[in-house]
Amino acid sequence: MKFRILTLLLALLMLFSFASCTQDPGPDAGTGSAEGTGEGQTPTATDVRVYTLNGTTGFGMAKLMDDAAKGAFSTENYTFDVKTDASEVLTALVSGDVDIAALPTNAASTVYNKTKGGVKILAINTLGCLFLLNTGDDAVTSLSGLSGKTVYCPAQNPTFIFTYLCQQNDLEVITDGTPGEGQVLIDSTSYAAPANLRDAVASGSVKLAVLPEPMVTIAVSKGKTATPAVDVKVALDLTAEWDKLPGKAGTLVQGCVVVRTAFLEEHPEAVANFLTAYEASIDYLNDNPAEAAALVQTYGIFENAAVAEKAIPKCNVRYIDGGEMKSAVGTYLEILSEVNANSIGGQVPEDDFYHIAQ
């Protein structure tokens, strides 16, 4: 009898042991974080919200946007938004409504100062893309040749850059009145928006102007079809003029990509993956301008693929990170600070502005 009871107890013990081994471990057992899961389970993708500006600053994002639309990324879930106004991007960075953004380099410095270190610069995405255009009869072959002339320039960044170049070429910059010998009048109010200045150049009503690509390509094309036709000439490449200055070669860095510091700290792997994909996207743009231009139009970065294709080789879209990025951006922001400290948010950022991947 005792033997039968003992046998029954052993059988029940084995049954309960088997049941505990096969029991559902529950929803929390063996799971990982948003950037990793337990073995054999499907990873959870990290949501990454990306803003970019239309025009040159956004060109390098086109292939990445296309890859994301086609489901090429399993560990990041990207959402993109193309903006026409840099102030919208700055506002979103300050409020936390966006994680990564492509924007002008001086604007990145401004939001860093405004948020007291709330963003970090990841990489340069655009070097210099400004040109001096001439529709007049007098050939301009150097900046010193602008003595006594009026040059129209879009507001903000182009004006700051052109002001510095004129000053470094022994020209006194004035903003009203009539320029005399050794002076140049820079008008950044009559046509503050690049598109408006572009049209004024193409119509021949403006003789000398500073414009970025792809506005340059459009102005040249529109001038040919104007009535009467206007011969819009590219007089000077302002990046080449900048690079002539001692110790300044490679430091005209007009565009960059930044990340919110909090997002970087929470999702470092997602940021690293983004940078890998972004560099590849920029390489694709430069290696395949026709195909990339089609994507630029498809994703609303620029409205005309044919114009974009012509402009891409002159847009100076580049991917530069690490120490080279820090050195170039630091020099550029120091220069803008001398021209107009407000253009970079009041002061040059500290070293923690720069994200140097390990």
Write the layout of secondary structure elements.
Elements: H1 2-22, E1 46-53, H2 56-59, H3 62-69, E2 76-83, H4 86-95, E3 100-104, H5 105-115, E4 119-126, E5 130-134, E6 149-152, H6 157-168, E7 172-174, E8 183-187, H7 194-203, E9 208-212, H8 215-225, E10 233-237, H9 238-243, E11 255-260, H10 261-266, H11 268-287, H12 289-298, H13 305-311, E12 317-320, H14 322-339
Helix pairs in contact: 4-5, 7-8, 11-12, 12-13
Protein architecture, described:
The chain is of the alpha/beta class and 358 residues long. The chain has helices at 2-22, 56-59, 62-69, 86-95, 105-115, 157-168, 194-203, 215-225, 238-243, 261-266, 268-287, 289-298, 305-311, 322-339; strands spanning 46-53, 76-83, 100-104, 119-126, 130-134, 149-152, 172-174, 183-187, 208-212, 233-237, 255-260, 317-320. It has two domains: 46-127 and 250-353, Periplasmic binding protein-like II (D-Maltodextrin-Binding Protein, domain 2, 3-Layer(aba) Sandwich), CATH 3.40.190; 130-243, Periplasmic binding protein-like II (D-Maltodextrin-Binding Protein, domain 2). The strands form three sheets. A six-stranded mixed β-sheet has the order 2-1-3-11-4-12, with helices on both faces. It has a three-stranded antiparallel β-sheet with strand order 9-5-10, with helices on both faces. The chain has a three-stranded parallel β-sheet with strand order 6-8-7, with helices on one face. The model is unreliable at 1-38 (pLDDT under 50). Helix 11 (268-287) crosses helix 12 (289-298) and helix 12 packs across helix 13. The radius of gyration is 28 Å and the shape is globular.
